[in-house]
Amino acid sequence: MHPPCTVCMGLDKECSKYCVYRRGFPPNEKVIEFSRVKYLLNMDNVYMNLLKLYHSIDQGDYEIYVRSLIHETTCRYDENLHGAKGIYDRDVGQARQAQKLVEDQLAAGQTVLHAIREEGLKLSEQIHIKETQLKAAGIQIPK
Ligand SMILES: [Zn+2]
């Protein structure tokens, strides 16, 4: 009984001791790396490329391919690059932030406007009282 390699385990496939994916992803190794490869890249292409390369290039190059595959997906994962969907999510997030900023500034502006209007009403009320007092005292207000 052979434990399945990480690729077969991740794709829920039968695995034998002759499985070609064992060389790049031995059992219980590079599990996180493989889950990123599976998540970020087109798995059908990766699966076929690994298979093709296994038969067409020497072992050293095959291991370089697996390392570069892991490196690429680690970079994409760390940099939070998820292709078009990642760009869409980032842009939508920025647009929502900008919208919230505008709404907050609008609300702050309305608060200031309200305070100015209240102050203006108080001042015109005080002017009216003064004019009434001056009129009562018989003093002419120059126009
Ligand atoms: Zn396998």
UniProtKB/TrEMBL annotation:
InterPro entries per record: LOB
Domain LOB per the UniProt entry, residue ranges: 3-113
Pfam families, A to Z: LOB
Family (UniProt): Belongs to the LOB domain-containing protein family.
UniProt protein name: LOB domain-containing protein 1-like protein
Originating organism: Tanacetum coccineum
